[in-house]
Write a structure and sequence with these properties.
This protein is mainly β and 161 residues long. The chain contains 2 helices and 10 strands; from the N terminus they run E-E-E-H-E-E-E-E-E-E-E-H. The strands form 2 sheets. It has a 7-stranded mixed sheet. The protein binds zinc ion (2 copies).
Amino acid sequence: MTSQDEPQVTTKTLKGSCLCGCVEYEVDGPLRDVVSCYCDQCRKSSGNFVSATAASESRLNILRGDGLAWYGNKLAKRGFCRECGSSLFWLPRPGDGLIRIMAGTLQRDTGLRVAAHIFVNQRSDFQELVGDAPRLINGNHPVGMSDAGPSEDWVANYGCS
Ligand SMILES: [Zn+2]
Ligand SMILES: [Zn+2]
């Protein structure tokens, strides 16, 4: 069993898709644990907040991409299904080699967990935060691709209860 405090990395291959099936993909681990972001960008583009995992761009294999369309602004590029509107991916601008995958588009048995809530001050007033993951007012989360968890110093500096 993995302790609750220890970020974990899923190394298996997971499949995902949009709602209508016009976009299907698989991704080979390692996959980063999930970060939930409540920033204005995520709130408006998703309808509330974004919970995303991340993987090396080279490990994402689009199996069916006829519905995939990209929209973007200066901060991010976002991948949607143009047929059903599902939000599937996002990439920061400039990129960092990691593709963010909207975790709810994956198969349900992911082995992932929410490891941080970020930009929590930008969330809507109805949105409660649940669980023990650190709650940050900015985006500087320590959730990485390695299995090294956040240090106690980090939690003291950035975590809030
Ligand atoms: Zn679709
Ligand atoms: Zn965000």
